[in-house]
């Protein structure tokens, strides 16, 4: 299970979740992309799926097939939306998903809330996402530190809206997996796809 996290809203976490799940779809069993942002869910908008049923229904006993939705914009990916779920439902859901042989990618909210902590604890590793601004990178460093405190491996960082001039390794304490350029339609941009494919290769190589 891979968490996607970062300190700032609008840094590109949801797009990163979508692109990595899409890349993993070509590597093995169909991946599940989970919207762990219970307060402001938007993965379903990016993926082109229904917003519910979702995490709350899964906790209440619905089957995985009943709560996952084929993503129109992400062929081969199943999306588990936040629905009406809260932090308790997310925790229970991630515990159940830990047993699935399918890749699971969890989109988390910004900041250091209990929801983020829940996702980080459940994950085998986290990719930290940040724009190239100093403020965003400083918040991303806090996210990386939080993950380490919780015992979650920091796989690396994705720097969005970046031409590659900034190297954040000293601040974040992890490798930079990709610099992703600022484009209008990232899901259909070939350069963006190629950058995220590098991250997918790292995830597959580490067997996450």
TrEMBL record:
UniProt cross-references to SUPFAM superfamilies, sorted A to Z: P-loop containing nucleoside triphosphate hydrolases
Q: Which domain of life is it from?
A: Archaea
InterPro entries attached to this UniProt entry: CobQ/CobB/MinD/ParA_Nub-bd_dom (IPR002586), P-loop_NTPase (IPR027417), ParA/MinD_ATPase (IPR050625)
- What are the alphabetically sorted keywords of the record? ATP-binding, Nucleotide-binding
**Domain (CobQ/CobB/MinD/ParA nucleotide binding) ranges:** 2-165
Name used for this protein in its record: Cobyrinic acid ac-diamide synthase
What Pfam families does the record point to? CbiA
A single BP term in Gene Ontology: negative regulation of cell division
Q: Species name for this entry?
A: Halomicrobium mukohataei (strain ATCC 700874 / DSM 12286 / JCM 9738 / NCIMB 13541)
Q: Which Gene Ontology CC terms are recorded?
A: cytoplasmic side of plasma membrane; cytosol
* GO-annotated molecular function: ATP binding; ATP hydrolysis activity
């Amino acid at each position: 299970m891979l968490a996607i996290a970062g300190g700032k809203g609008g840094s590109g976490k949801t797009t990163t979740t979508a692109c990595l799940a899409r890349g993993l779809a070509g590597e093995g069993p169909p991946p599940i992309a989970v919207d762990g942002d219970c307060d402001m869910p938007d993965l379903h908008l990016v993926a082109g799926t229904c917003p519910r049923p979702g995490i709350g229904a899964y906790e209440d006993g619905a089957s995985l097939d009943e709560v996952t939705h084929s993503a129109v914009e992400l062929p081969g990916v199943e999306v588990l939306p936040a629905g009406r779920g809260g932090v308790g439902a997310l925790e229970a859901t991630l515990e159940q998903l830990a047993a699935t042989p399918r890749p699971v990618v969890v989109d988390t909210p910004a900041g250091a809330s209990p929801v983020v902590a829940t996702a980080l604890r459940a994950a085998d590793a986290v990719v930290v996402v940040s724009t190239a601004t100093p403020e965003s990178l400083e918040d991303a460093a806090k996210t990386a530190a939080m993950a380490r405190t919780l015992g979650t491996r920091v796989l690396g960082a994705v720097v969005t809206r970046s031409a590659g001039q900034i190297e954040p390794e000293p601040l974040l304490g992890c490798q930079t997996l990709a610099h992703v350029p600022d484009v209008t339609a990232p899901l259909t941009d070939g350069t963006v796809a190629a950058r995220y494919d590098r991250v997918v290769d790292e995830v597959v190589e580490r067997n996450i």
